[in-house]
Design brief:
The protein is of the alpha/beta class. It has helices at 12-17, 27-35, 39-46, 113-121, 141-149, 166-169, 178-188, 207-218, 237-250, 273-286; strands at 2-3, 6-7, 68-70, 73-74, 80-84, 128-132, 159-163, 192-197, 222-229, 252-259, 295-300, 303-310, 315-323, 332-336. Strands 3-4-5-6-7-8-9-10-11-12-13-14 form a twelve-stranded mixed β-sheet. Strands 1-2 form a two-stranded antiparallel sheet. The model has no long low-confidence stretch (mean pLDDT 97). The chain binds iron/sulfur cluster. The site of iron/sulfur cluster has 10 residues, from loops.
Length: 350
């Protein structure tokens, strides 16, 4: 198998034991990252590295198993349901936090949509469903319609959200004229149609992606972007500020900058919290007021935590952006900083 560091003979057993994600990358993405002149950074997103055999961590860093209420359906925060619609992506990110699922034949993928619909009917506090995976746009437009058949009848759902990296990996998918009717259906059911893109770096944004976002926006689709802070790829405030400014100009609202998770085989992508805060501050210094819409977030087992600052008192200040317990949301808390900490669990209590 080819790795960034060179070719190495590996057995299927060895790959399985180290949870090495299968290799797959689209031709259009490789062409885009070479032409962008950022190949030396962006290759780490899709090209396997020998570091994957050494990186410690877990395969379920956010407690997805504990929040799975039905096969393929998670309900962690009261307002949001999450559907795992597929285990396939157009290319596989080496840092994926769902590497336990993607590129495999996973039993965590939804099979029984009627059962999901029954659950949603019984949970009127749920206001939106995120269709994720894998990448939902790997599914045929017909299958996406089937999923909508089971979501649109509920008046308490006011938005349908798709999480996708397809605009980076295979932007042509969004030229399917049938998608316009899919999004129209969502609007006709009086719900917001939302696409959450996943651009980690300005070098991933192609002319074709920009054109397709522009045309879908004209059909009323709302766009947000989430990025992951990744060592060697985008741990640079200038690059991320340029990425967010470009998203903003395209009508995509920068939404989350995720702290990379301690994923087994991918924790070498993590950037220390101190450096992450410097980068987040550097991004804010470079953006205008209306472009500063991102939050630096750690998606922890206990909830989504916004990382705010490292104080002069040596403590990291944080705030729950989302938590299963509503009374914790918005509350600021702090932990002593330990040099080289990447995650909440690396910060001591007290
Ligand atoms: S596109 Fe998303 S789900 Fe697929 S490999 Fe990348 S991060 Fe994972």
């Amino acid at each position: 198998m080819n790795f960034i560091q060179g070719t190495r003979a590996v057995t299927p057993v060895e790959l399985e034991a180290h949870s090495i994600t299968r290799y797959r990358v689209t031709k259009s993405y490789i062409e885009q990252i070479i032409n962008s002149n950022y190949y030396d950074h962006l290759k780490f997103i899709v090209e396997p590295s020998l570091e994957e055999f050494e990186s410690p961590g877990s395969l379920d860093t956010s407690g997805e198993h504990d929040n799975t209420v039905l096969p393929g359906f998670q309900h962690k925060y009261a307002q949001t349901g999450m559907l795992l619609a597929t285990d396939r992506c157009a290319s596989y990110c080496r840092y994926c936090f769902r590497k336990r699922i993607v590129g495999k034949d996973s039993d965590e993928i939804v099979t029984n949509l009627e059962q999901v619909a029954r659950y949603i009917r019984g949970h009127p506090e749920m206001t939106n469903v995120l269709i994720s995976g894998g990448d939902p746009f790997m599914l045929s437009t017909g299958r996406l319609h089937e999923i909508l058949d089971h979501l649109l009848p509920f008046p308490h759902l006011n938005s349908i959200r798709f999480g996708t990296k397809m605009l980076a990996y295979a932007p042509k998918r969004f030229e399917d004229p049938a998608l316009v009717a899919l999004f129209r259906r969502i609007h006709t059911a009086r719900k917001a149609a939302v696409i959450v893109t996943h651009f980690d770096h300005i070098g991933e944004i192609s002319v074709q992606a920009e054109r397709n976002v522009c045309s879908l926006r004209a059909h009323g689709v709302q766009f947000f972007n989430q990025s992951v802070l990744l060592a060697k790829v985008n741990d640079d405030s200038e690059i991320l500020a340029a990425t967010f400014a470009k998203c903003y100009q395209m009508g995509i609202r920068p939404y989350y900058l995720f702290q990379a998770r301690p994923v087994k085989g991918a924790s070498h992508f993590q950037v220390p919290i101190r450096r992450g805060l410097e980068i987040a501050q550097g991004i804010n210094q470079r953006l205008s007021g209306i472009q500063k819409t991102f939050r630096y977030i750690m998606s922890h087992y206990t909830g989504k935590i916004e990382i705010l600052d490292l104080g002069a008192d040596g403590r990291v200040y944080m705030r729950y952006h989302q938590n299963k317990a509503p009374e914790k949301i918005g509350r600021i808390f702090s932990r002593p900083y330990r040099e080289g900490a990447f995650w909440l669990d690396d910060l001591p209590d007290g």
